[in-house]
């Protein structure tokens, strides 16, 4: 189909180093994230996947003692610029966390939270955003009769889809997901994987996963991290069938990690 | 065979010992609990029994008469209500604000540790010292005179450490995952605090408020130096007026007026308990409301 058009990179990372105090967690990362694709970040625990993901929406700013060097551009704009508006950046780059973390508010208020903060006040507009986002996250049918009930009453899988809906309500361009299914049972995991494949039509998705199956099933691109380094990256089928690096091969065939 | 029987016996013995130990500990803790609860109930019961006969509508709403030996204690009730309200108005926003600064904004390090220790120590300063401080600063230096304003500010200083410490705990107990979720949605830091952190912290903050109110309503020394009057048979016209206040009134009727009927003393004490109880009830309702609102119960 539109292969050529989709080759466009939305995020580019050049020579990225990240330190927690003296400890270097990311070493000279070079990569780019392609628009409307699902990119998977794989690698053993502690190799820096989450850290890398969190550099893309500057969530690492929240941790004291973090230094970032190098270049990260989003739509051509350097995101570590002094005068970049972080709040605006995070509106365009949404995030879903490892453990579902809906606010202890109603389902409706969870989804409306982001739009409200960016100034949507009209009840009709909010209603519409909430409905659309919940539909997009394949949750609408299950919750439409209990929008004002607590989000904490939902099952784990539903909570995670609510968190996805909450992120989608901001109409972001990129959705970052950090092991979004690791706390869920296989059925809930399946639903979220299906959802991700649907979402990539409209969104660029970067997903951290420690499940090789998941990466193979849902991603177009895969990047393999090891001890803070990006060892290999490319089309997912290539990474899984004909990896160039021995370490990648060992990892994807389950020989370590 | 013999072996297993032996082992079985040993096991049963161990189980029995374990059960006895469990029972012992349970009994011990129950005793501790009773040792705390029984005196409290006794004190309250004693005051209720001795005071309830005196407390009626006219006792609550009339001015004192005949050298306070007759009539009611209305001005002291009103005085204490004003003082407690004033204290809350000054201390709650300031204390919560300081707690927000210390937990959410200040860079954690030596300075914040030092401030925390200072605040904790302030909580242990005797209340008469606060009274003297209030007398020097608010009554004389700032020129408020002996007044509701000076008294409320002094009591506010007195309970600020409690408010700050409990608010800090409440704010810190809000999981970071909520802050991250909010910030990741493009909420600013202040929006995150106001919309996510504070609503979840308010029940805990109210606990500090309750403790503070109890102290503010019951303290005698600070108000003696900054606001309380021996006898004023009228209500205050402004915040610059002196007032009577329940704890000081209780002290006066108990020790300063010869021939004071017992009933007036215990009636006054009961009303003081009642006023504190009413404020507690308010704070508890707010607490529950916010708990419900955040769907946490
Ligand atoms: N806040 C932090 N402070 C210090 N070190 C951290 C922090 N977060 C992560 N690290 C370290 O950085 C490395 C990468 O962590 P992380 O990105 O969480 O790995 P992954 O997500 O791949 O499991 C690990 O060695 C981890 O211990
Ligand atoms: Mg991780």
Note down, in words, how this protein is organized.
The complex is a heterodimer of chains A (257) and B (297). By secondary structure, chain A is α/β, with parallel strands linked by helices. Chain A has one domain: 3-Layer(aba) Sandwich (Rossmann fold). Helices cover 37% and strands 26% of the residues of chain A. In chain A, a hairpin with a 2-residue loop joins strand 4 and strand 5. In chain A, helix 4 (107-117) packs across helix 5 and helix 4 (107-117) packs parallel to helix 7 (156-168). The longest helix of chain A has 14 residues, at 123-136. The radius of gyration of chain A is 18 Å and the shape is globular. The two termini of chain A are 36 Å apart. In chain A, 46% of the residues are buried. Chain B is an all-alpha fold and 297 residues long. Chain B has a single domain, classed as Orthogonal Bundle (MetI-like fold), CATH 1.10.3720.10. Chain B has helices at residues 2-51, 57-61, 74-105, 110-122, 127-141, 148-172, 176-184, 189-218, 221-226, 246-256, 262-293; strands spanning 64-65, 70-71. In chain B, strands 1-2 form a two-stranded antiparallel sheet. The longest helix of chain B is centred in the first third of the chain and has 50 residues, at 2-51. The A-B interface holds A 57, 59, 62, 64, 87-88, 90-91, 94-95, 97, 99, 101-106, 113-114, 117-118, 150-153, 163, 166-167, 170 and B 107-108, 175, 177-188, 191, 195-196, 200, 294-296. Adenosine-5'-diphosphate is lined by residues 20, 23, 25, 43, 45-51, 63 of chain A. Residues 49-50, 178 of chain A line the site of magnesium ion.
């Amino acid at each position: 189909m539109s292969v050529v058009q989709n080759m466009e990179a939305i995020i580019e990372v050049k020579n990225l180093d990240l330190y927690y105090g003296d400890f270097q967690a990311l070493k000279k990362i070079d990569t780019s994230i392609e628009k409307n694709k699902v990119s998977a970040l794989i690698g053993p625990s502690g190799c820096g996947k989450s850290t890398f993901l969190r550099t893309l929406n500057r969530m690492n700013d929240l941790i004291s003692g973090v230094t970032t060097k190098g270049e990260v551009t989003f739509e051509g704009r350097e995101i570590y610029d002094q005068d970049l508006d972080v709040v605006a950046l995070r509106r365009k780059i949404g995030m879903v966390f490892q453990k579902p973390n809906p606010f202890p508010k109603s389902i409706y208020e969870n989804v409306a939270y982001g739009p409200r903060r960016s100034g949507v006040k009209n009840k009709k507009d909010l209603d519409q955003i909430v409905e659309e986002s919940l539909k997009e996250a394949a949750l609408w049918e299950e919750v439409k009769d209990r929008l004002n009930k607590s989000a904490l009453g939902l099952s784990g899988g539903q909570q995670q889809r609510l968190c996805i809906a909450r992120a989608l309500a901001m109409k972001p361009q990129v959705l970052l997901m950090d092991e979004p299914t690791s706390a869920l049972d296989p059925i809930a995991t399946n639903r979220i994987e299906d959802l991700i494949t649907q979402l990539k039509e409209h969104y660029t998705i970067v997903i951290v996963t420690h499940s090789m199956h998941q990466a193979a099933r849902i991603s177009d691109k895969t990047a393999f991290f090891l001890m803070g380094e990006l060892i290999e990256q490319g089309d997912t089928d290539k990474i899984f069938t004909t990896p160039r690096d021995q370490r990648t091969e060992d990892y994807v065939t389950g020989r370590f990690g | 065979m013999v072996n297993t029987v032996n082992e079985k016996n040993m096991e049963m013995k161990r189980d029995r010992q374990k059960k006895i130990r469990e029972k012992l500990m349970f009994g011990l803790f129950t005793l501790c609990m009773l040792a705390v609860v029984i005196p409290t109930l006794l004190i309250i019961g004693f005051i209720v029994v001795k005071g309830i006969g005196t407390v009626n509508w006219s006792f609550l709403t009339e001015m004192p008469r005949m050298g306070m030996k007759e009539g009611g204690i209305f001005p002291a009730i009103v005085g204490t209500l004003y003082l407690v309200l004033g204290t809350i108005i000054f201390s709650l926003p300031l204390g919560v604000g300081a707690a927000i600064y210390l937990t959410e904004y200040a860079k954690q390090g030596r300075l914040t540790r030092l401030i925390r220790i200072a605040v904790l120590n302030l909580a242990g300063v005797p209340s008469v010292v606060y009274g003297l401080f209030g007398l020097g600063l608010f009554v004389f230096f700032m020129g408020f005179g002996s007044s509701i304003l000076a008294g409320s500010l002094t009591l506010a200083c007195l309970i600020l450490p409690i408010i700050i410490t409990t608010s800090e705990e409440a704010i810190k107990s809000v999981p970071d995952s909520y802050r991250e979720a909010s910030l990741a949605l493009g909420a600013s830091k202040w929006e995150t605090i106001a919309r996510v952190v504070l609503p979840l912290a308010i029940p805990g903050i109210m606990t500090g408020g309750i403790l503070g109110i109890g102290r503010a309503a019951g303290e005698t020394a600070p108000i003696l130096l900054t606001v309380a009057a021996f006898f004023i048979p009228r209500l205050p016209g402004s915040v610059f007026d002196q007032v009577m206040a329940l704890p000081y009134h209780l002290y006066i009727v108990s020790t300063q007026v010869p021939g004071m009927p017992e009933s007036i003393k215990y009636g006054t004490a009961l009303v003081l308990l009642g006023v504190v109880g009413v404020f507690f009830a308010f704070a508890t309702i707010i607490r529950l409301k916010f708990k419900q609102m955040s769907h946490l119960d």
